Amino acid sequence: MALKRASRVASLLREVLSEILATQLKDPAVGRITISRVTLSDDLRNARVYFNMLGTEAERQKTLAGLTRAAGFLRTELGKRMDLRRAPDLQFLYDDTLDYAERIDQLLKQAFPPDAKPPE
Question: Residue 33 falls within a domain, yes or no?
Fold first, then answer.
């Protein structure tokens, strides 16, 4: 049951956090990001927030630093909006799933070029 609750709360946390980032966070270091997923510990005290963004590695690091600085503000806002005894501690991580998928796509295109004739 705790796993199901953690999953439901993580989903809600993702929605609320996305809304807060879009409407209230004014830090110029945090550009346009997408919260891809949130995982919560079973006791709901710790949340790992995975985000995606376009940009260079330096821009990603700058955004990560901005999110880390804003974690206290974001946690306070989550506490105001969500019906939890305690807002979870937030840890932000870059989600490299899209980068990995792009790399696989490049490898497949190299292995099977679109202009190559299929073997007979």
Answer: yes
